[in-house]
Write a structure and sequence with these properties.
By secondary structure, this protein is an all-alpha fold. It has one domain. It is built from 6 helices and no strands. Helix 3 runs antiparallel to helix 4, helix 3 packs across helix 6 and helix 5 packs antiparallel against helix 6. The chain starts with a helix and ends with a helix.
Length: about 130
């Protein structure tokens, strides 16, 4: 009987852990990391940095990271998560330094995606 209970607990634990991404909430660190990765590649494309990377690799990197950012935003499902993402994006825009314009561009790109996600959720219900 104890063995059966242990097996059932193991299966239940596996099911919960296997579905963790479905329960994952907004992570400011993850969101900011995705935006920072976009900045890295966009800086190279805009000529603000070379980082020893070709324009082709920078373009491919930017496409990949901006797609990851869009997927992350598309996974946000509540007004609270979207408000947190909006605040993080606005704070990101306010950063200063030699990459300020690039940072602002990525932040604005994120805000546009957040706006689109909010409209989607309004239409399809939250």
């Amino acid at each position: 009987m104890k063995r059966l209970a242990r097996i059932a607990m193991f299966i239940a634990l596996f099911a919960v852990v296997g579905n963790l991404p479905a329960f994952a909430a907004f992570s400011e660190a993850k969101f900011e990391s995705l935006m920072q990765n976009c900045v890295k590649y966009l800086s190279i494309l805009e000529g603000n940095s070379s980082n020893g990377m070709s324009q082709e690799l920078a373009y491919e990197g930017f496409e990949k990271t901006s797609t990851e950012l869009q997927k992350y935003i598309s996974g946000l499902g509540t007004k609270k998560e979207l408000a947190s993402a909006r605040k993080t994006a606005n704070d990101f825009i306010k950063k200063a330094g030699h990459e300020a314009i690039t940072i602002a561009n990525v932040g604005k790109m994120s805000l546009k995606a957040i706006d689109q996600r909010e409209k989607f959720l309004e239409i399809h219900g939250e």
